[in-house]
Write a structure and sequence with these properties.
This protein is an alpha+beta fold and 385 residues long. It is built from eleven helices and twelve strands. Strands 1, 2, 3, 4, 5, 6, 7 and 12 form an eight-stranded mixed β-sheet that branches. It has a four-stranded antiparallel β-sheet with strand order 9-10-8-11. A hairpin with a 6-residue loop joins strand 9 and strand 10.
């Protein structure tokens, strides 16, 4: 187990009995591209995570070692300027330390070793786990609490500093997750609540299509944001109180359909209906209706494919293959789009056979070897006993 390796390495090189912290990855059950439209999302934290072994030191620095991808060590002076690091994780930590110094947070010397089992680039929010876990680790050593809400904001600011313009869904899911529950988040006011996942006899599986995002993706994201903003601007002309698509109904779209292009209407309709799917998913999970949950997943995928147009032919193939297997109740692309993974709900008793069939059919149709990961819903950031 990775946490044993992290702890053992720390004890061999620093002190016995470090504080051990786990920061989980996260999945998003439903609610794609709704966050920047002040909409609704339904993520959940998972068993895979990043583990931090930490203790204080008397050297007025923070020493960090990683074997996340390969062994590497970085030393931060608590009151010095730091160069840009070659390692991606070094620059996340650099940004966090600079933010905390600017906020006059009482940093203390710290030794830290971390590693994890979140597959990098799989859409499981390894960067949010990295940032939130590191900030939480700092609070454990410095013995000055930072609220989880503020940890989320600091982690978000750190990602912004290194050029990633993220929302707050990932950080909130990593910090507030609860075993056996999805995490409903309203991105308009950050209100949230737990939704029990009552699906005994069914398992969540992530399948990586191994289709990588290409360089045109950022411009495609921007086009969709502009479409949403165009609709809001037109409706604000007669309803000035409107701030985002969250405040808009499909009746509003009818009123402005002659003033905007058809694609903008189509994309706005997707966002409105995706918010509705989040609410529907909450009901079906609580009721324990696995078939209905699967149908919401499938509806969400094909809306992303035909209305928001952010899937790929390979991802569509994966979902179609699942639709042909009785044991796969539903699947959909998860994440920003144009590549990445599908999340799948599969009967546990037929899990191995179903995964084998999915991967084999996908290989036959595309020539690509997909990868899969079992997912278990777990707690948010915590001291790991």
């Amino acid at each position: 187990m990775i946490h044993h390796k992290v702890k053992s390495y720390f004890e061999d090189n620093y002190l016995k009995n470090p504080i051990l912290i786990k920061a989980p990855g996260r999945i998003n059950l439903i609610g794609e591209h709704t966050d920047y439209n002040q909409g609704l999302v339904l993520p959940a934290s998972i068993e895979k995570g990043i583990y931090f072994a930490v203790s204080g030191n008397e050297e007025n620095n923070i020493q960090i070692e990683s074997f996340l991808t390969q062994p590497e060590k970085i030393v931060f002076q608590l009151n010095g300027e730091h160069k840009v690091f070659e390692s991606f994780w070094g620059n996340y930590f650099k940004a966090i330390i600079e933010i905390l110094i600017a906020k006059n947070y009482p940093l203390k010397g710290m030794n830290c070793v971390f590693g994890g089992d979140i597959p990098i680039g799989s859409g499981l929010s390894s960067s949010a786990a990295l940032c939130c876990g590191f900030i939480y680790a700092i609070t454990q050593v410095s013995e000055k609490e930072i609220s989880r809400e503020d940890i989320a904001l600091i982690a978000q600011e750190a990602e912004h500093k290194i050029g990633l313009n993220c929302g707050l869904m990932d950080q909130y899911a990593v910090l507030f997750g609860k075993k056996g529950n999805a995490f409903f988040l309203d991105c308009n006011d950050l209100s949230h609540k737990y939704i029990p996942i009552n699906l005994d006899g069914y398992s969540w599986v992530l399948i990586n299509s191994n289709i990588k995002h290409n360089l045109a993706v950022d411009s495609e994201y921007n086009k969709r944001r502009v479409s949403c903003e165009n609709i809001v601007k037109q409706i604000q002309a007669y309803r000035p109180q409107v701030k985002s698509l969250r405040d808009i109904s499909k009746d509003d779209l009818v009123k402005v359909k002659n003033k905007v292009n058809e694609i903008d209407i189509q994309r706005a309709k997707y966002i409105i209906e995706e918010n509705e799917r989040v609410l529907q998913m909450m009901q079906e999970l609580t009721a324990g209706d696995a078939i209905a949950v699967g149908n919401v997943l499938k509806d969400g995928h094909w809306a992303m494919s035909t209305e928001y147009e952010i899937t790929t032919s390979e991802l569509d193939h994966l979902v179609k293959i699942g639709e042909e297997l009785d044991e796969v109740l539903g699947s959909r692309m998860m994440g920003g789009g144009f590549g990445g993974c599908t999340i799948n709900l599969i009967e546990t008793k037929s899990l191995d056979e179903s995964i084998k069939a999915l991967l084999s059919s996908y290989k036959n149709k595309t020539g690509i070897d997909a990868e899969y990961y079992h997912l278990a819903i777990d707690d948010g950031v915590k001291v790991f006993e």
